[in-house]
Structure formats: C-alpha cells, structure tokens
C-alpha cells in the first residue's frame, strides 16, 4: 500500500493586473527645474502602449484649465508668470480613445 502525504489547498490569495492597463492615470507626478518663466513636469506612464497624454495646467486661482497633448513622459511649460502658484493634472489617451479634456 502506498500512502502519500499531501496538504490541502492554501487559503485564497487574490491579485489584480488592472494597474497595467492604460486607463489608469499616470503616477509619480513631479515638478522640477522651476524658474520664473518655466517648469518641467514629469510622470510615470501606466502602460507602454500609450500614444498620447492629455495635460492641463492653470494658475491656482484660475477657473479655466489650459490643455495640451504630448507623447513624452515629461513636458516643459513655458510662458509662466513670476511669483505665481500653478496646478497641473494629466491623463492618458489610448490608441482608441476619442475623449477630450473639458
């Protein structure tokens, strides 16, 4: 007679690979190389298959955002006003995405 010593299954362990898909927003937003007139914005792309990023920025007190598109993982803003606080945000545009920022 052969007897085996096997354990039962472990408890369930869950994981998700949804963070790999481009509909996730870029992460690690960072601003450096700030001068009176320029600032360099950088971020980490959520996927390697992206075609574009939609970036918006504005002064901290403005109501309206200024939008632009870039294919890089950085952008150098120019024409900034001295002694002014700014805000910025970004989203990904997938190859099949037809949305626009509003």
Could you please describe the fold and organization of this structure?
This protein is mainly β and 102 residues long. Strands 1-2-5 form a three-stranded antiparallel β-sheet, with no helix packed on it. The relative contact order is 0.25. The mean pLDDT is 80.
Strand content: 35-45%
Helical percentage: under 10%
Strand arrangement, major sheet: 1-2-5
Major β-sheet annotation = 3 strands, antiparallel
Determine the number of helices (DSSP H or I, runs of at least 4 residues).
Answer: 0
- Topology as a string of helices (H) and strands (E): EEEEEE
Mean pLDDT, to the nearest integer, reads: 80
Question: Which oligomerization state do the chains in this entry correspond to?
Answer: single chain
What is the approximate shape?
elongated
User: How many strands in all?
Assistant: 6
The SS-based structural class is mainly beta
Radius of gyration: 22 Å
> N-to-C terminal Cα separation, in Å?
74 Å
Regions with pLDDT < 50 over 5+ consecutive residues?
Answer: none
Labels describing this entry:
102 residues, mainly beta, three-stranded antiparallel β-sheet, 36% strand, elongated
What does the secondary structure layout of this molecule look like, with pairings?
Elements: E1 27-32, E2 39-44, E3 52-59, E4 66-70, E5 74-77, E6 86-93
Antiparallel strand pairs: 1-2, 2-5, 3-4, 3-6
Summary, kept brief:
By secondary structure, the protein is an all-beta fold. It is built from no helices and 6 strands. The protein is 0% helix and 36% strand.
């Amino acid at each position: 007679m052969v007897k085996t010593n096997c354990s039962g299954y472990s408890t369930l362990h869950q994981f998700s690979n949804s963070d790999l898909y481009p509909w996730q927003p870029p992460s690690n937003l960072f601003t450096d190389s700030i001068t009176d007139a320029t600032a360099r914005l950088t971020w980490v792309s959520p996927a390697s298959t992206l075609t574009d990023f939609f970036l918006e920025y504005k002064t901290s007190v403005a109501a309206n955002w200024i939008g632009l598109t870039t294919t890089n993982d950085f952008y150098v803003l120019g024409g900034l006003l001295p002694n002014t606080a700014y805000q910025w945000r970004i989203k990904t545009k997938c190859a099949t995405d037809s949305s626009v920022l509003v």
